[in-house]
């Protein structure tokens, strides 16, 4: 049972005051000038882990490169990832690409128009599905993100833990029960209020359009809400990275199609077991018949959302070793595109790879190698 204290009158105030405010005060964003579901979809996927102000140039570039779902579906996954470069969380770009291909093959290029059908596409969960269905197709369905959870927790003075999946489920059902006919505007207005007025720190209650019905404002508990209990600690992993150099070119591998940084190019990397570069040397034996002893280059650290990599970097200079060509028997088919999973690249060509930051930040350490 949701611990929320809002009566019918406060619900009506929330609906009317919020919508009135949103109509006048909403930010002028490029994806608010359209009801085109394709554009709304792209903007919502970008907004999942990126602030709205930050994503605008990326959104404009993406839409200019792939103006329709057909152009996105026809592009190679590498082109899509390259255009996504800088936004991080690359699985979003891969899912967009895959979903675009499904929309073209199964829906003749038209975005599915219901929440239920949208949920079947890769990368679309309840929040994104709700946002597209309500904003583009005006379906009466909620879109509950962190902003919305914060606003409703405060408005109803709820001390339920918003990090708990059960709270989110109940909160979603509660919002669904109070959605007005203009569900898309109402969802957007809740998100907007959370982004610009009812912010995590120092909410601007004095200028808030729904202050008169806000229960936490009346109770003086705004600063304590929402309740979000701490998650478990990040996992730290010790890793060995292999930098293989030949004729001033560096060796790159494509990461597996699932898991962290899936499908992206990287330096060879493996978990540390024996240490001293022996683990990565063993892994590289898959590609090189004979390697010299690893040269220690340095260490680096990269923090993902749930994992920290503590990386020891080792160099292997093939100019001083017995040269063996990289196997070319690893050509695999990726749906419409044939791709290779290994390649040497000159430093001047590395930009083409859209190398994730976890690896591109190591390049500065290689100047003396
Ligand atoms: S009055 Fe303050 S706490 Fe309540 S919704 Fe508005 S900004 Fe948030």
UniProtKB/TrEMBL annotation:
Lineage, opening ranks: Bacteria, Bacillati, Bacillota, Clostridia, Eubacteriales
Co-factor binding details: Binds 1 [4Fe-4S] cluster.
Family: Belongs to the Nth/MutY family.
EC number: 3.2.2.31
Cofactor(s) this protein cannot do without: [4Fe-4S] cluster
SUPFAM superfamilies, sorted: DNA-glycosylase, Nudix
CDD domains reported in the protein's UniProt record: ENDO3c (cd00056), NUDIX_DNA_Glycosylase_C-MutY (cd03431)
Name used for this protein in its record: Adenine DNA glycosylase
A Pfam family it matches: HhH-GPD
């Amino acid at each position: 049972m949701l611990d929320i204290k809002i009566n019918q009158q406060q619900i009506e105030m929330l609906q009317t005051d919020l919508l009135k405010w949103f109509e006048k005060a909403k930010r002028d964003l490029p994806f608010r000038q359209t009801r085109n579901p394709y554009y709304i979809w792209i903007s919502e996927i970008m907004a999942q882990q990126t602030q709205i102000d930050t994503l605008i140039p990326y959104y404009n570039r993406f839409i200019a490169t792939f103006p329709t779902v057909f152009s996105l579906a026809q592009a190679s996954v590498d082109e899509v990832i390259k255009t996504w470069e800088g936004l991080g969380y690359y699985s979003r770009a891969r899912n967009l690409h895959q979903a675009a291909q499904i929309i073209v093959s199964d829906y003749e290029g038209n975005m599915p128009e219901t929440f239920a059908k949208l949920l079947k596409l890769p990368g679309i969960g309840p929040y994104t599905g709700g946002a597209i269905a309500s904003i583009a197709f005006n379906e009466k369905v909620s879109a509950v993100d962190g902003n919305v959870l914060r606003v409703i927790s405060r408005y109803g003075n709820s001390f339920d833990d918003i990090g708990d999946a059960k709270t989110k489920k109940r909160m979603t059902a509660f919002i669904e029960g109070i959605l007005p006919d203009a569900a898309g505007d109402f969802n957007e207005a809740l998100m907007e209020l959370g982004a610009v007025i009812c912010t995590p720190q120092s909410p601007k209650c004095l200028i808030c359009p729904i202050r008169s019905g806000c229960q936490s404002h009346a109770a003086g508990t705004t600063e304590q809400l929402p309740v979000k209990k701490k998650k478990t600690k990040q996992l730290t992993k010790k890793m060995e990275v292999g930098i293989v150099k030949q004729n001033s070119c560096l060796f790159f591998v494509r990461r597996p199609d699932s898991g962290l940084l899936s499908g992206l190019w990287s330096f060879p990397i493996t978990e540390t077991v024996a240490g001293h570069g022996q683990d990565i040397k063993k892994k590289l034996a898959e590609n090189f018949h004979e390697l010299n002893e690893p040269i220690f280059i340095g260490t680096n650290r990269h923090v993902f959302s749930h994992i920290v990599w503590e990386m020891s970097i080792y160099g292997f200079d093939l100019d001083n070793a017995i040269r063996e060509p990289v196997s070319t028997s690893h050509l695999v088919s990726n749906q419409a595109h044939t791709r290779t999973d290994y390649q040497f690249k000159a430093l001047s060509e590395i930009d083409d790879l859209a190398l994730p930051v976890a690896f591109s930040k190591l390049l500065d350490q290689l100047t003396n190698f």
